[in-house]
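User: Is it possible to get a 3D structure for a protein together with its bound compound? The compound here is 4'-phosphopantetheine. I've pasted both below.
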Amino acid sequence: MPVVAIYPGSFDPITNGHLDLIQRASNHFDRLIVAILRNETKAPLFSVKERMKMLREVVKSYSNVEVDSFDGLLVDYAAARQATVLLRGIRAISDYEFELQMALMNRRLRPEIETVFLMAGEAYSFLSSRLVKEVFSLGGDISGMVPPAVAVRLKKRLPVARSHPAKT
Ligand code: PNS
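Assistant: Yes, that's possible. Here is the predicted structure of the complex:
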């Protein structure tokens, strides 16, 4: 039986940390579905359609990786896609508590689906979509943090604030 894994998340936008995880995981599962949560309450910067487009662009070289979106319970979506693995990345210890809670809840809901964690690559362990957006909007350099296609879209979408050093 081919092993199908779901990598769920907001991906608003995808970072090089996510991409590193996708690349590594794609070697270990027959099929990897990167699934964007359709959740308007989070007020995302990019629409689901835009995020799907960016994701598809950056994973196109991985033949066993697919991009999709979902709403409702993640485990129900996974079951509908015949996936037996939920993949999540862990950066620092601070991620652990929330991830543990989600993994245990998901196991309670559907014990046949296993959550598998990969440690984030050390070069990306500080990286998050939220920080990338904040640093970029304040004029900081985000090169190497997101794929070039994402940097281009960020430039179009987010106004960059000018920095005003305090007068002494
Ligand atoms: O990238 P994120 O925002 O950390 O991803 C969170 C996500 C999408 C994995 C989580 O919010 C989720 O699975 N939502 C779907 C609804 C659900 O199943 N909730 C119960 C999870 S315990």
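Residues 8-10, 37, 73-74, 102, 105-106 surround 4'-phosphopantetheine (CB under 6 Å). The first strand starts at residue 4 and ends at 9.
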